[in-house]
Amino acid sequence: MGEQENVDNTSVIVLGGKMSIEELVAVARFGAKVEFSDEYCQRVRKSRSLVEKWVSEERVMYGITTGFGAMCTQAISPEETTQLQRNIVLSHATSVGEPLSTEEVRATMFMVLQNVGQGFCGARMETVELYRQFLNRGLTPFAPREGSVGYLSPEAHMALVLIGEGQAYVGQELLPAKEALRRVDLAPTELSAKEGLVLVSGTTSVTALGALALYDMLNAAKCADIIGSMTLEILKGTTRAFDERLMSVRPHAEQRDTAANIRNILKDSEIAAHFQNYRLQDAMSIRCIPQLHGAAKKTLKDALKTIETEINSCCDNPIIWPEGEDGEAISGCNADSSYVGIEMDSACIAATMLAKMSERRNNRLVDGNVSEYPPFLIKKPGLNSGLMVPQYTQAGLLNDMKILSHPATVDGIPTCGNQEDYVAMGYNAVKKARQIAEKLEFILAIELLSVYQAQQFLELDKAPATAVQAVLAEIAVTVPVMSEDIFLYPYINGIKNLIHQQKIVELVEAKVGRLL
């Protein structure tokens, strides 16, 4: 299924077919409406009919007619089934601390809908319809972000709102759940067999947060190519290091494509052409852009493949497997978050590699000993500090990123009375990936600010590349050229927002075509 337009010209995502990371982000970040296809509804209803049949037959099924986790040997009578599902939600809502952001909660609800919509979970249409309405009417459950090992707790806080418990935002106002539901003309439901388990288990929050982080990392990687090209140009670097022949003897696709991006961005640069033979060889932070950026982008692309597989998976336990008019509830551990966790641990390292090269390039821009410009890119250095201290900010952010790059998934602390004697910790991997993605954007923004300020000191009647001019012109709308010290915080934030909102990539691709 793809993205459509409704009569209000609002983006609509129709669930039922294969979903992409872009469609998840459209719903989570940009407020796209959600609809269910006929195929989606048919799968959900068929799976639900089997659960109801098996409950009536009093079959033994994990989490449905038995207790949960270590209490899976405890039988639950049909009369207690509904109470069990409510109890699962109430007892599991134990995450703490600051809440997940609106887009993180929306992404998780999207993933719950995707999970159920594969047709192997057994939740009712009425339940997924409520989550769909939460997304479409702007109701966002309150869910604390800290204390998950990969499932259960944040998801349980979200599920509380379905039964009229907990809290939720309507707009920016935090309300008791029943009042929030009333504000958007909805009513709570009573969970039925298996539904509490469906709502709290699985990789839904892990995939949701991982997708948001990866989406921003992939965009930042393109921005890194653009900003690296601009730094090369203003530092009088040579484009010889990006020669297609050089790339051909080490045929990594992402290295080749990165070099092609640099050549394409600077293809009509009079400055780059003038200085092509100015130096025999540049510092590694300049000439090694294809190699490092390429390696990072390969890792991010590998993560994308995994994330999109997970978006289109059933991560429930047990699954409802249909065979003719009957079937079987199969217990296992598709709720394990190792796939996403390991990939996002690796993505954190890749993003930190991009950041460490950006910081080194920026250091060359502000160091008058190597830039051939005034120290810290300011007139009257000494009286003015210029862009000295933004590099400190980069150093502090980069130190954080290095700490956050320690893999979460190598750890494991047993839970559930040793029934879960191994835990993947994928949630912590994606949670820190969200932090790393934002810090990378700030580090790139500071490098771009330095490139922008350095332009005033290039005493040469040669024009930058057309794509570079487009970026510089956009920055000039809100950022002044410094002649003396100014308050820099709003300008760093402004450039970071241009990166995050994909404006930098859009400007460049409008001039040179799609970046690889």
Shape: elongated
Low-pLDDT runs of 5+ residues are 1-9
* Overall helicity: 55-70%
Quaternary? single chain
- Proportion of beta-strand residues: 5-15%
The main sheet orders its strands as: 1-2-3
SS-derived structural category: mainly alpha
What is the number of strand segments? 10
Structure description:
This protein is mainly alpha-helical and 516 residues long. Helix content is 55%, strand content 8%. It has helices at residues 21-28, 38-56, 81-92, 102-117, 125-137, 153-162, 177-183, 195-200, 204-234, 244-248, 253-265, 270-274, 284-287, 289-311, 338-366, 368-371, 388-404, 426-454, 466-476, 489-500, 503-512; strands spanning 3-5, 11-15, 33-36, 96-99, 139-141, 144-146, 167-170, 173-176, 319-323, 326-330. The strands form four sheets. Strands 1-2-3 form a three-stranded mixed sheet. It has a three-stranded antiparallel sheet with strand order 5-7-8. It has a two-stranded antiparallel ribbon with strand order 4-6. Helix 1 links the parallel strand 2 and strand 3 (33-36). Helix 1 crosses helix 4 (102-117), helix 17 packs antiparallel against helix 18 and helix 19 (466-476) runs antiparallel to helix 21 (503-512). It is elongated and about 85 Å long. The model is unreliable at 1-9 (pLDDT under 50).
